[in-house]
Amino acid sequence: HAHAAACLAEHRWPREGGDVIALTLDGIGMGENGELWGGECLRVNYRECEHLGGLPAVALPGGDLAARQPWRNLLAHCLAFVPEWQNYADTAALRQQSWPLLARAIERGINAPQASSCGRLFDAVACALECAPLTLSYEGEAACRLEALAATCEGVDHPATLPWRDGKLDLATFWQQWLSWQASPAQKAWAFHDALARGLAAMMRDCANARNIHTLAFGGGVLHNRLLTARLTFYLADFTLLFPQQLPAGDGAIALGQAVIAAARLQA
C-alpha cells in the first residue's frame, strides 16, 4: 500500500480522487495476515487497500540467503511448477549445485518461507540463463544483469505466456513454455520481460475494467527495470499510467507513502 500511495502522492492524486488499480513489484514486503508479498495487484486509495491478485507464493529457500544466491530461487520455482525440470537445458547451472538437501528442506518447509516475490522470479530466470554470479554482490544484481542481457535483443516472437487465472498468474504455464523454447539467452531474457509484462497487464486490465477504474499506479523496486516498464506501457496504453518518476520506485519512497496513508486516515 505504501509503494502505491507514494506514487499517488508524487502525481498529486487528490485525497478524494477515488480508487486506482496498483501494481507493486519488489523483492519482499509485509502483506496481509503476516504474508510476504512482492508481486501484487491492489485496489487502493489513500486510506484503503484491497488485495486483488498477483504472483503465486513460492518458497524462499534459506530465507535471506535466497536474495543472495539466485540458484535457490530457480530450485524453488522448479520444484513448485516444473516436475521434469532436470530434463531442460536451462537448468544446467542449478543441477551443478548441491540441490537435493535444499530440495528436502523446501518440501518440509524448513527455513523456506513462502513469498509472492517478483524480485526472486527475476533471480530464478537470471540463474537459468547463467547471466548472474552464483552469489550476488548486492540485491537486484541478477535482475540488472538480466535486463542488460534482454536489452541486447530488439524483440522476438516467442511462445511464453503468463496467464491470469483465479486471482493468480500461472507460473507453471510460463516455466514450461519458456524452458521448452529453444532460443538465444538474449531472446529468452527479452521474452521473459515481455511475457511478465503482458501477464501483469492482463491482470490489471481485468481488475480495472471490473471496477470501472481508468487509472493505474505502479511501485516497488522492480519498476526500476526500464524494459519491463516499457512493455507495461505498451500493453496498457489505453489507461492513465502513474509511474514513479521524481521519487524512487523502491523502498526510498515507502516513508512518504506511509505518511500520506496515516494522514488520510486521521483526516477521515
From TrEMBL:
Keyword list, A-Z: Ligase, Metal-binding, Transferase, Zinc, Zinc-finger
UniProt domain Carbamoyltransferase Kae1-like: residue ranges: 23-258
GO molecular function, one term: carboxyl- or carbamoyltransferase activity
Record's keyword annotation contains Lipid metabolism: no
GO biological-process terms attached to the record: protein maturation
SUPFAM superfamilies the record matches: Actin-like ATPase domain (SSF53067)
Catalytic activity: C-terminal L-cysteinyl-[HypE protein] + carbamoyl phosphate + ATP + H2O = C-terminal S-carboxamide-L-cysteinyl-[HypE protein] + AMP + phosphate + diphosphate + H(+)
Regions that span the bilayer: none
Pathway: Protein modification; [NiFe] hydrogenase maturation
Domain of life: Bacteria
Pfam families the record matches: HypF_C_2
Keyword Phosphoprotein: no
UniProt xrefs under PANTHER family: CARBAMOYLTRANSFERASE, CARBAMOYLTRANSFERASE HYPF
Stated family: Belongs to the carbamoyltransferase HypF family.
Protein name according to UniProt: Carbamoyltransferase HypF
Record organism: Klebsiella michiganensis
Source species taxonomy: Bacteria, Pseudomonadati, Pseudomonadota, Gammaproteobacteria, Enterobacterales
